[in-house]
Amino acid sequence: MSILLNRETKALIQGITGRVGQSQTRWMLEYGTNIVAGVTPGKGGWVVEGIPVYDTVAEAVAEQGAEASVFFVPPQGVKETAIQTIDVGIKLIVVITEHVPVHDVMEIREYATDSDVQIVGPTSPGIITVGEAKLGIMPGNMFKPGRIGLISRSGTLSYEVSVNLATAGFGQSTAVGIGADPVVFTNVPELLRLFEEDPDTDLVVLVGEVGGMQEEEAAEYIKKSMTKPVVAYIAGLNAPQEKRMGHAGAIIQGDGRGTAQSKVSALQEAGVEVAQFPAEVVRLVQKRLASS
Fold first, then answer.
1. How far is the C-alpha of 28 from the C-alpha of 135, rounded, in Å?
2. Do the domains spanning 11-120 and 139-291 agree at the CATH topology level?
3. Does the reported pTM lie above 0.90?
4. What confidence score (pLDDT) does residue 151 get?
5. Sheet with strand 35-39: strands edge to edge
6. Which stretch of DSSP H or E encloses residue 197?
7. What is the mean pLDDT of residues 12-22?
8. pLDDT mean over 124-138
9. Which residue among 247, 252, 259, 282 is the active-site one?
């Protein structure tokens, strides 16, 4: 069953005529994603990789019945594009774009919540339901079909963890990159709930990092609501305070909030096995599955 996305999902690509949009469309199609339309204002009538392009998302939905969208649009255009997309009834949106203004993210998140729309990002590598479909830039060859759900704040770390798991014989059901900005559209507990309800997922791996309170909130949710085992890895154990570590959201506040140690402690108190380094995730997954 997986979560959020499957091979039947009708997807549209916003920003399909740009260089990145064109190349990623080709790779998503090769993976099996059911792309039915593209949108670029002023480029209606174009065809990219055999996909018809429309001027507006309303036209694309009316003509092709699209139900999910991925954005390859400039940061200043994300807010307007998101509102238009939500207004025509799209229920799943993935925002790859970086540097979206925080205030725009907050407005979009509220609007999406009020409209019952699942939106992932910004600065997200995307979503992949392994062996079926992907929306975004995740490399399909890094994943193997299986029964492990993956939630990650870091794209590259999620690839490393997924390859290690696949090599050891543990494939993934769905992997979701939530985005690495200080404010994101979807929080970890929301995704944990979806994996908890998914009959094709036996265990969830959470890849976190310093900054923010996502992992602490996840720990509270796990303690109260999760019956499936969770294994985690938190990057940045030695990160200094108030220094951004690559991602915009990977920064420890001066009051000590958001440290790797605070996240590890919260997760361990919730019964989560926490790896000391990425490769240890495999051993902990083996341990938890053997005991569950």
1. 7
2. yes
3. yes
4. 98
5. 47-48, 51-54, 35-39, 11-14, 68-71, 92-95, 118-120
6. helix 188-197
7. 98
8. 98
9. 247
The two tokens of residue 64 are 């092709």
Superfamily for domain range 139-291: Succinyl-CoA synthetase domains (3.40.50.261)
Is residue 103 part of the annotated active site? The answer reads: no
Give the CATH fold of the 11-120 domain: Rossmann fold (3.40.50)
182-218 burial code (b ≥16 CB/10 A, e <16): bbbbbbbbbbbebbbebeebbbbbbbbbbbbbbbbeb
Give Cβ neighbours of residue 181 (< 8 Å, ≥ 6 apart): 100, 102, 105, 122, 123, 247, 248, 249
For the chain, the structural domain boundaries read 11-120, 139-291
How many CA atoms lie less than 13 Å away from 37 in the CB half-sphere?
24
182 vs 205, residue with greater confidence: 205
Q: Is the pLDDT of residue 228 over 90?
A: yes
Q: Are 96 and 72 in contact (CB under 8 A)?
A: yes
Copy the structure tokens of residue 181.
């900005």
